[in-house]
Amino acid sequence: MASTRALNAYRSALRATKIAFTNDTTRLLAARSKIKHEMKLENSSTHPKYTPAERIKLLENVSNFLIHNIVQGVKKTEDKNSRYTLNIHKDTELGDNEEIKKNKSRFSSGSSAVTGDNQKSNLDKAKEGVTDTYDKAASHVQPEEEKGVFQKIGDTLSGKKN
């Protein structure tokens, strides 16, 4: 039964990458490559202490996150006043910012709200795992001339050569 669930999670993750990265072959291939690599490993490289059931749940959460939370912007012009269009699809989660409005005082107080891993839900951990993996893959495949200042700083701080 676990192997069926793992296979379903794997297929779902591949379908999710197709939805999230439809017009971006580079990131589509990078995401699929990372998913395939992680599936082949006996222990996860990002979460080595996870049991197989936890890894399957994480992959299901990653799929859900990709489908509902990743929106790609496409640059329409090459001049300094470039415009972007967003590839929003039927499954994109469109929030109303009510949570931010409710917690406005927490965000405007100047204090940083940091949550420890032991207080995060599996979905939050999955979101962080996806964004970390995506950022790492993007830093490797994105040409140097297309990187912004903050990405170059991040690459430098993480030990990657410019």
TrEMBL record:
<feature type="compositionally biased region" description="Polar residues">
    <location>
        <begin position="106"/>
        <end position="121"/>
    </location>
</feature>
<comment type="subunit">
    <text>Interacts with RIP1.</text>
</comment>
<dbReference type="InterPro" id="IPR050435">
    <property type="entry name" value="MZM1/LYRM7"/>
</dbReference>
<dbReference type="Pfam" id="PF04119">
    <property type="entry name" value="HSP9_HSP12"/>
</dbReference>
<dbReference type="GO" id="GO:0044183">
    <property type="term" value="F:protein folding chaperone"/>
</dbReference>
<dbReference type="InterPro" id="IPR045298">
    <property type="entry name" value="Complex1_LYR_LYRM7"/>
</dbReference>
<comment type="similarity">
    <text>Belongs to the complex I LYR family. MZM1 subfamily.</text>
</comment>
<dbReference type="GO" id="GO:0034551">
    <property type="term" value="P:mitochondrial respiratory chain complex III assembly"/>
</dbReference>
<dbReference type="GO" id="GO:0005759">
    <property type="term" value="C:mitochondrial matrix"/>
</dbReference>
<feature type="compositionally biased region" description="Basic and acidic residues">
    <location>
        <begin position="122"/>
        <end position="149"/>
    </location>
</feature>
<comment type="function">
    <text>Assembly factor required for Rieske Fe-S protein RIP1 incorporation into the cytochrome b-c1 (CIII) complex. Functions as a chaperone, binding to this subunit within the mitochondrial matrix and stabilizing it prior to its translocation and insertion into the late CIII dimeric intermediate within the mitochondrial inner membrane. Modulates the mitochondrial matrix zinc pool.</text>
</comment>
<keyword id="KW-0143">Chaperone</keyword>
<dbReference type="InterPro" id="IPR007250">
    <property type="entry name" value="HSP9_HSP12"/>
</dbReference>
<protein>
    <recommendedName>
        <fullName>Mitochondrial zinc maintenance protein 1, mitochondrial</fullName>
    </recommendedName>
</protein>
<keyword id="KW-0809">Transit peptide</keyword>
<feature type="region of interest" description="Disordered">
    <location>
        <begin position="97"/>
        <end position="162"/>
    </location>
</feature>
<keyword id="KW-0496">Mitochondrion</keyword>
